[in-house]
Design brief:
Length: 447
């Protein structure tokens, strides 16, 4: 051939697949022997280095010729370099770890600024009392529902469905109405429109998912508030502490990716935050347990200060250190409230289980290909991004309190309050009479 290539015929191969096409029975195939002026039959440019051939029925080329012919197929296949493999070891899901992020100090400054404002506002609302905390929870519910509704909103389809967004907003009140007479359900059926059935039913399911994850969960939070601010403040504070220290440990020490769903989460941050959270739970329970306005339950929507007998859970018990303490140690005994041991269980849950609420939210966001649920909090995302772990923690705190704390936390004031609120005047008189007879019998037995 004039261009330095040779025509070879392989009739015994049948139809053989190649990078540049298919060769059939008896067809002639042009094969280059790799001179600098060589050109392939497909018209691809000549490789910069001589090509190597192998006798396997299909022409194999070296790495340089593969790169040269990649322009025809649109693919480039090359071996990963050792430096690239090392770099990927410090990445998760293709994203750099926080410790390797060039903009981490700028991001930290923004997050710190937002965190200080949030903690300051939260502390002020807690100081104002039960009613204001309840109002804060309601506002957070509304913002969370708004962010979640916006994920599936399609303006082009909603233009054909006037009033459909108002229908979604009506469902949070449906729990108070008999399901068979629910006007929201009837309204939904009447608004079904041709060519939008799939979208409407998707929104219907989405709305009830929001009811379950936001409004139903928040009812546990409200119950914790009125059992005593302590049972709302301690679990919420543990989640905040866990988030802050997971960020700080990951910021300075994080090297090992924890989970692909959250690329910037590291094992160093997870372990460091877990230890810090458990220790903080034990200490915070002791500090909060000394204030009656935090430990006393509220049975109404009044805003006055509370004074009560908080029960045995918040009364210190003294433990002698005995031989365990060295002679130079100033304390020979320590005072520990029983509630501090229960706080360790809350701290353990907040440090190990509750973060998986955040991982669940991360997977949810990846399913919708979004980074954050919103942008209302600079450096943090939306309200939902901050509340994902709080929702899991609030449910656990309520169940734990009702299972292990409430049955043991009786006091004279609590029992009297229940008698006055739950018994009629006649029932109270009967109870008084029965107690008088019991006391009279005991006096006779003692005499």
């Amino acid at each position: 051939m004039a261009d330095g290539s040779t025509i070879l015929n392989f009739p015994w191969l049948g139809r053989s697949a190649s990078r540049h096409g298919t060769v059939g029975h008896g067809q002639m195939r042009r094969v280059s022997f790799g001179t600098p002026r060589t050109r392939f039959a497909t018209g691809a440019p000549a490789p910069s280095r001589p090509a190597l051939t192998t006798w396997s029925g299909v022409m194999q080329r070296d790495t340089s010729s593969s790169d040269a012919s990649a322009s025809h197929t649109g693919r480039v296949r090359r071996r990963r370099q050792p430096s690239e493999a090392t770099a990927d070891g410090n990445r998760a899901n293709g994203q750099p770890l926080l410790v390797n992020d060039r903009n981490k100090y700028k991001s930290m400054l923004i997050r710190t600024y937002s965190t200080v404002w949030m903690i300051g506002g939260f502390a002020l609302i807690v100081y104002m009392g039960h009613l204001y905390i309840w109002a804060m929870v309601v506002v957070i519910q509304i913002y969370m529902a708004r962010e979640l509704f916006n994920l599936l909103r399609k303006s082009s389809e909603e233009k054909q469905l006037p009033g459909f967004r108002l229908l979604n907003c009506s469902y949070p009140a449906k729990g108070n109405i008999c399901g068979s007479l629910d006007p929201g359900f009837v309204w939904f059926i009447l608004t079904l429109k041709k060519k939008t059935y799939k979208y409407q039913f998707k929104q219907y399911a989405w709305t009830h998912m929001i009811l379950l994850t936001v409004f139903a969960q928040s009812s546990f939070t409200v119950a914790n508030i009125f059992e005593g601010i302590f049972w709302f403040l301690l679990p919420a504070s543990l989640i905040v502490i866990n988030d802050i220290f997971a960020y700080l440990f990951g910021f300075f020490l994080g090297r090992t990716p924890l989970i692909k769903l959250s690329p910037k989460k590291t094992w160093e941050g997870f372990i460091g935050a877990s230890v810090t959270t458990i220790i903080s739970a034990f200490l915070l329970a002791n500090v909060m347990g000394h204030y009656q306005w935090l430990t006393c339950p509220r049975k109404d929507l009044s805003t006055g200060w509370l004074y009560c007998d908080p029960g045995p859970m918040f009364k210190p018990e003294h433990y002698s250190l005995g031989e365990w303490a060295p002679h130079w140690f100033p304390w020979k005994e320590v005072a520990i409230m029983p509630v501090q041991w229960h706080a360790l269980a809350l701290g353990l849950f907040a440090s190990i289980i509750a973060p998986f609420g955040g991982f669940f939210a991360s997977g949810f966001k990846r399913a919708f290909k979004i980074k954050d649920f919103g942008d209302s909090i600079p450096g943090h995302g939306g309200i939902t991004d901050r509340m994902d772990c709080q929702m899991v923690m609030a449910v656990f705190a309520y169940i734990y309190h009702q299972s292990f704390i409430a049955p043991q936390n009786f006091s004279v004031e609590i029992i009297l309050d229940q008698i006055i609120r739950n018994l009629t005047y006649e029932e109270q008189k009967y109870l008084y009479k029965q107690l008088g007879e019991i006391f009279h019998e005991r006096q006779q037995m003692q005499s």
